[in-house]
UniProtKB/TrEMBL annotation:
Residues 215-279 form the Signal transduction histidine kinase subgroup 3 dimerisation and phosphoacceptor domain. CDD domains: HATPase_UhpB-NarQ-NarX-like. Its EC number is 2.7.13.3. It comes from Streptomyces mutabilis. It catalyses: ATP + protein L-histidine = ADP + protein N-phospho-L-histidine. It comes from the Bacteria. It is an enzyme of class 2 (transferase). Keywords: ATP-binding, Kinase, Membrane, Nucleotide-binding, Phosphoprotein, Transferase, Transmembrane, Transmembrane helix, Two-component regulatory system. The keyword Membrane applies. Residues 384-393 have a biased composition (Low complexity). This is histidine kinase. The chain crosses the membrane at residues 20-41, 53-73, 109-138, 158-187.
């Protein structure tokens, strides 16, 4: 089938034709109401015997259609039909009721246009095919050429009979072309008349941004809490397995730490997942903060065999709650990186102090000892990606990117990378703002 034939008789053209026929069907009640008005004014007994009077009734009924389009469901219904039958992209249409004057005006214009053009095409679809079929079979059916058939006298000529089938075919093609053209025009105008307004687009963009922000926050919370817990539990279980026979006391402490870590993590996980469940209230487990659980975090980390040297000159209880909460997650991620990459063979240094109106968090560990070199290089790659904004390598860098996001949301900065033979995470959080 050629492109021209597809444009006239293809699936999309047929569906748009159906859309126009539906517009004509919807226009019929308004035409009947218009005939009630036109009939008494003109004094005509048979309104449907005159094409002029029918068009007049049609013209009177269209304003009534524009008024009825103010019904709230008009725009959602029309948008759904346009998407299904006219092939208009769903993102270009609005599916909520028209609320503002501009939206109601555009909906009224569309509904009137649909019914007006659809009524004309529907009328042509009813009248043209029978007449075209009569012309096509006219040379082969003598009864149609009788004077009583009501056909024009010119069709009695031989040359007219020879051209009658051609004329009939041309009329059918012209009807298809008219329907395809009208359908294409309505499909082109639909986004402008049924599409979202500028306010709708802004509101949708803000809703998507808010949803994305919530998803990113939940992803960070899950990564930091669950990721740290799994790293700590893995090392604690490994150390307990190695010392099961030689140091039972250490094994008991490791198992107790595993129990405490998993219990706390289940509570945090339930709090985060509560936000994701439709109809559920957020979990009641409080978000951990530097003031409430720094010592517990250090104890659980040391239970995994990691040596942690801590210097805290800032008073965690004096920190603003948002800073204390994000600082806890940042420290947790720094210790988690050390657990994953450095193992228990090195000493991790943690410093938390206040200088120049900023809370400063520094986590350092050597990268040249056993198990630390490869981890430091991997971490350095991820940290560099976090600083530069480039995508991290598969399987790494998400935690450091989350640290950078947390610092940025508070108006601070985060730097991570190798400094000589030391892997260093340094974060500065302003204490004067809690953005």
């Amino acid at each position: 089938m050629t492109a021209a034939a597809r444009s006239l008789f293809g699936r999309r053209a047929r569906l748009r034709w159906i859309h126009l026929i539906l517009g004509g069907a919807l226009a019929m009640p308004y035409v009947l109401v218009g005939s009630v008005v036109v009939g008494p004014i003109t004094g005509a007994d048979n309104l449907f015997g005159s094409l002029t009077l029918q068009l007049a009734a049609f013209a009177v009924g269209l304003p009534l259609a524009a008024v009825s389009s103010l019904f709230p469901l008009t725009r959602p219904l029309e948008s759904g039909v346009v998407r299904s039958l006219c092939g208009v992209d769903a993102d270009l249409l609005a599916y909520g009721p028209a609320r503002t004057k501009g939206e109601k005006g555009r909906t009224a214009a569309w509904f009137t246009l649909h019914l007006g053009v659809g009524g004309i095409v529907a009328g042509m679809s009813l009248a043209v095919p029978p007449f075209a079929a009569a012309l096509i079979v006219l040379p082969f059916v003598p009864a149609l050429r009788d004077d009583g058939a009501g056909l024009p006298g010119v069709l009695g000529h031989a040359w007219a009979l020879a051209l009658a089938p051609v004329a009939g075919g041309v009329m059918l093609v012209a009807l298809a072309g008219c329907a395809a053209g009208c359908g294409a025009l309505l499909a082109r105008w639909a986004p402008a008349l049924l599409g979202p307004s500028a306010e709708d687009r802004v509101a949708a963009a803000e809703a998507r941004a808010a949803d994305l922000a919530v998803r990113n926050r939940l992803a960070r919370e899950l990564h930091d809490s669950v990721g740290h817990a799994l790293s700590a539990v893995t090392l604690q279980a490994s150390a307990a397995r190695r010392l099961l026979d030689s140091d039972p006391e250490f094994v008991r402490e490791a198992l107790a730490a595993i129990e405490d870590t998993t219990r706390r993590t289940v509570g945090e996980l339930d709090a985060v997942l509560g936000v994701l469940r439709d109809g559920d209230a957020p979990g009641t487990a409080p978000a951990p903060t530097l003031a409430a659980d720094l010592d517990g975090l250090l104890d659980r980390t040391r239970a995994g065999g990691l040596h942690v040297s801590v210097t805290v000159t800032a008073d965690p209880r004096a920190l603003p709650p948002p800073v204390s909460r994000e600082a806890y997650r940042i420290v947790q991620e720094g210790l988690s990186n050390a657990l994953r990459h450095a193992g228990g063979q090195v000493t991790v240094t943690l410093r938390v102090d206040v200088r120049d109106g900023h809370l400063r968090i520094t986590v350092e560990n050597p990268v040249g000892e056993a198990g630390g070199e490869a981890g430091g290089e991997a971490g350095g790659e991820a940290g560099g990606a976090a600083r530069s904004g480039a995508a991290p390598r598969p399987g790494g860098g998400h935690g450091l990117r989350g640290v950078a996001d947390r610092a940025r949301l508070l108006g601070g900065t985060a730097e991570a990378g190798p400094v000589g033979r030391t892997w260093r995470l340094h974060v500065r959080l302003p204490l004067g703002r809690t953005a």
